[in-house]
Amino acid sequence: MRAKTFEHDSDELVLNLFYEDKDDRWFPGDRHLRRMARKMLFGEPRMSGQLRVFLNLCAGLDRLGIRYRVNDYRYIAQHPDELACIIGRTFLLDKFAWKNPILLGVAAHNHPLDDPDLFTRLPVKKVVVPGPWYADMYRPYWPDTEAWPIGIDTDRWAPSRAADKSVDVLIYDKVHWDRERYAPELIEPVRARLVSEGRSFTELRYGSYKEEDFQAALARSRAMIFLCQNESQGIAYQQALSCGVPVFAWDPGGPWRDPDYFPHRVTFAPVSSVPYWDERCGMKFVDRAGFEAGWADFWAGCMKDSFDPRGYVLDNLTLEQRARQYYDIARSVARQHAVSAGSGTLVDGWLTGVG
Predict the structure, then answer these.
(1) pTM value?
(2) pLDDT tens, 222-280?
(3) I need a surface site. Which of 51, 182, 217, 256 has the fewest CB within 10 A?
(4) Where are any strands of DSSP class E within 175-326?
């Protein structure tokens, strides 16, 4: 990725962003060859959630006029007192001899147990994770954890015309744990209810579509049923909200059931599949009985335009709002580090004598 580099301005924090999606595996630079080979064999790769986080952060910073560098390892090595913002992934922590204070996340660890000595092994000062319940899970291990969701591009993910709405419901299927249980217990009854009412529907399964497919499906759909056990942020359902599509969300709660951790390593509850939400977004249900009981009210609300999902996103999750939050977190970490290092003083909330 080409670095976006600016001249340093001592009166303003210039973010030093680091993000790489793939690491070299066999020899230096082989990640580029592997990427080209995958493109030749399988076509354009699907957008990963981690890459979307990085791109949306940069887009929000651009809109705000906040300056940043990308993967400028030479600069950061020459300025060891400046903050390094490592978006992800975890291999970057061992790729470079970090001397700088580090703001880490969100595309990093699944759980602190993956790197319990992180804060003593490296100069990490704060970790950001995508959502509030995720932050609550991290803090007993890493107290300096803060929730930070990425913003949604509300210009790209915008409502379509009513005349384009040719499908009643989009079923978004992200059921991956215990699927052999939930396919007959939940997914099939959802389909059966829609069929019994004569509702037209289409389905997308997580990991099997490109962003353009999802965007086109939302443009055609009047509502979305979101089936997912839990989400740290839930970019997909928030993109639906931004398109003005009300969501009927399966939100079973309970413990975090990632089989790599639960129940032998981590037991944490409660989780949520829609961690950013209010009544404007749509409605939620806990299980099949809740779906059967609540579906009619949800559909009636859709027909009456009772929901305002896009309004929720505009109030809480725009590119500018979330980029500003990230910048404020980074600035706070940089100032705290400078004060603790004795290399500067605070004047009217700004740091002087650093850089």
Answers:
(1) 0.87
(2) 999 999 999 999 999 999 999 999 999 999 999 999 999 999 999 999 999 999 999 99
(3) 51
(4) 201-205, 221-228, 247-250, 282-285
Rounded CA-CA distance 350/329 in Å is: 14
Q: Which residues contact 68 (CB under 8 A, 6 or more apart)?
A: 4, 6, 14, 15, 16, 17, 58, 61
Report d(CA 296, CA 287) in Å as an integer.
15
The sign one gets for the Cα dihedral 53, 44, 68, 70 is positive
Alpha-carbon span 99 to 80, nearest angstrom: 6
Phi–psi pair at 254, nearest 5 degrees: 75, -160
CA distance to 153, 255, 300, per residue, from 293 (Å): 34, 24, 13
Cα–Cα distance for residue pair 80/84, rounded to 1 Å: 9
Q: Do 309 and 245 form a contact (C-beta atoms < 8 A)?
A: yes
- The conformation of residue 149, written as its DSSP 8-state character, comes to P
Selection from 284, 266, 267 nearest residue 276 by Cα: 284
* 128, 105 Cβ separation under 8 angstroms: yes
Residue with tokens 């210039």: 14
Query: Which token pair is 161?
Result: 């015309």
Q: Which amino acid is at 10?
A: S
Angle at 263 between CA 257 and CA 265, to 5 degrees: 110
The SS3 assignment for 196 reads helix
Q: pLDDT tens-digit profile of 83-119?
A: 999 998 899 999 999 999 999 999 789 999 999 999 9
Q: What is the DSSP string of 268-299?
A: -----S-SS--TTSEEEESSHHHHHHHHHHHH
| Contact predicate 223/247, CB 8 Å | yes
Helix (H, G, I), strand (E, B) or coil at 309: helix
